[in-house]
Amino acid sequence: MDSVTILVASTGKNVALAEAFEQQLTSKSIAFKTLHLCDLNLPMYTTEQEEKNLQMPGFKEASDAIKGAKGIIVCAPEYNGSMPPVLNNFIAWLSTSTEDFREHFNGKFVALASHSGGGGHNLMTSMRIQFSHLGANVLGRVAIVNSSKPINLQSIEALVQGVIA
Predict the structure, then answer these.
(1) Tens of pLDDT along the chain (165 residues)?
(2) d(CA 133, CA 83)
(3) Strands (E), the chain
(4) Residue 126, helix vs strand vs coil
(5) CB 138 within 8 A of CB 110
(6) Overall CATH class of domain 3-164
(7) What's the half-sphere exposure (Cβ side, CA atoms, 13 Å) at 159?
(8) How many CA atoms lie within 13 A of 79 on its CB side?
(9) How many helices (H) and strands (E) does the chain have?
(10) How crowded is the C-beta side of 19, counted as CA atoms within 13 Å?
(11) Cβ atoms 157, 24 nearer than 8 A
(12) What is the CB neighbour count within 10 angstroms for residue 92?
């Protein structure tokens, strides 16, 4: 069976966006795991922190969820025109946790979504560059939600289809 990992990079409105993806995955009987990155409380990545061989509760399980997923859905807010720090930090830890920095994302389908107070388009560009660099197949279609643009369930369904294709 295909599996999907949902990365939620905030405790705000992107949680509701992730829940819309969860509902769509459940309706299609697709196995999924949702990772709330803020709950991991990862220390800020530095080479000094990496050398300490920190025991980070939940990190191995999160890493395994990414490795085992066929597809990944990222729900993240735009921070100052780019990616939120919690997402950057998580990717930094993942990329240094194995010999191949692309191991977690290489060849996987990734869907990008955001509930953002801003336009969200700079975020989409930043995430597209980052995940493409890591070897992912980033879907062309995205979901951008804000106070005047509600969740579009057709977009959610199309993105789910894209990550399991």
Answers:
(1) 479 999 999 998 999 999 999 999 999 999 999 999 999 999 999 999 988 877 899 999 999 999 999 999 999 999 999 999 999 999 999 999 989 999 999 999 999 999 998 789 999 999 999 999 999 999 999 999 998 999 999 999 999 999 998
(2) 15
(3) 3-8, 31-36, 71-75, 109-115, 137-145
(4) helix
(5) yes
(6) alpha beta
(7) 31
(8) 13
(9) 7, 5
(10) 7
(11) yes
(12) 17
Strand, coil or helix: 28: coil
- Residue 77's φ and ψ, nearest 5 degrees, are -85, 160
Distances (CA, A) of 29 to 1, 108, 122, 164: 9, 20, 33, 12
CB 104 within 8 A of CB 94: yes
Q: Which residues contact 125 (CB under 8 A, 6 or more apart)?
A: none
Q: Hey, what are 41's tokens? A: 């409380």
Structure tokens at 45: 């990545």
